Amino acid sequence: MIKFFRKIRQNLLSEGKTGKYFKYAIGEIVLVVIGILIALQINNWNENRIRSNEETHILKAIKIGLEADLSDLKFNEKSIQSSIASANMVIYSLEHNMPYEDSIPYHIGHMMFPVMFVHSTSAFETLKSKGINLIKNDTLRDEIVNVYYSQYSFFLKNESQIVLEVAERALRELFSTRFEESYVYDFNAPKYNPRITPINYEALKTDQEFKYFLKSFKNRLNLFLEFHYRSRLIKQVEALILSIDGELNTKN
User: Fold this and answer.
1) Secondary element (H or E) of residue 18
2) Which candidate, 26, 50, 63, 187, has a CA 20 to 30 Å from the CA of 240?
3) How far apart are the first and last CA of the chain?
4) What is the pTM of this model?
C-alpha cells in the first residue's frame, strides 16, 4: 500500500503536475491522520470497555460482600435483642425476690455472650488497588467510600468500647468473685447455650454493684442496638446495596 502511494507521487512529479502532487500529498496526510484518529478511538473504546467490565465485576463483588455483612448485622441484631431480654429477666428476678431457677445461668450467660460484626472488605480492597475512580458514578463512589471508611470504622470502634471491652472487664473484675466461671458453652447446642452460674444467687439480690452493672450494661446494649445497628449501619448498608443495584441495572 505504501509503495502504491509512493508510485502515484512519483508519477505526478515526473509529469510536472506539482499542484496535483501537493493536493494529493495533503490528502494522503489527511487520510493518515484520520487513520490514526480511528485507531486511537478504537483503542479508547477498548480501554473504556475493559474498565467498564472491571467496574461491573467490582460492583457485583462489593454487593455480595455487603449482602453477607447485612446478614451478619441482622443476625447480631436479633442476638443483642435477645441479650437485652435476658438482662431484663435477670433484673426482674433479683429485684422481685424471685426464687432461683435453672434458667438464671443461661440468661446471665446469654446477656454476656460476645457479639461481633464479622465483615468483608476484600472487594473494597481490590477496588482501592485498582483506583477508587474506577467507579464512574460520583455519588455511588462517595457512598461506597463512606460506608467502608467512615461507617464501618465508627461502628467497630464503638462496638469495642461500648460493649466488648466493658463486658470483658466486668467478667474479669466483677464476675470473678460472684460466679463459678465464665465462657461455659455447649457447642452441640444451636446457640451454644452460654451460661454463667452464680456462687450465691440470694446475695446478688442485695448486691447493688452487680445490679448497677446489669442495668448499665443493658442500657449500653440497647443504645448499641437502636443507634449503631438499626438507625445507622443497617440502613446505610441496605441503601448502598440498592444504589449498586441501580448502577448495575443501568449497565445492562
Assistant:
1) helix 18-95
2) 50
3) 42
4) 0.80
